[in-house]
Amino acid sequence: MTQIVVGENEGIESALRRFKRQVSKAGIFQDMRKNRHFETPLEKEKRKALAKQKQRRHYSRH
Predict the structure, then answer these.
(1) How many Cα atoms are found within 13 Å in the side-chain-facing hemisphere of 57?
(2) For residue 23, is it within any domain?
């Protein structure tokens, strides 16, 4: 869980900026997008197989 402590003289804009930076570093938004819809086991296998193919293609070019 991401938390920030707002300083006494810190503005809300800078605190919000720090919070957004921490959220993006933690990968929370990517995780939310990934888990937005239920994925059946078959869909999961297909997605992983496609990712492996892309990875193999990428490594074979170099």
Answers:
(1) 6
(2) yes
pTM over 0.85: no
DSSP labels, 4-40: ----TT--HHHHHHHHHHHHHHHTHHHHHHHTSS---
Domain total in the chain? 1
Does the residue 45 lie in any domain? Answer: yes
- Residue pLDDT, tens place only, 39-52: 899 999 999 999 99
pLDDT of residue 20: 93
pLDDT at 31: 86
Burial label, 18 (beta-carbon count in 10 A; 0-12, 13-18, 19+)? middle
Domain that holds residue 32: 12-61
State how far the Cα of 28 lies from the Cα of 39, in Å rounded to an integer.
Answer: 19
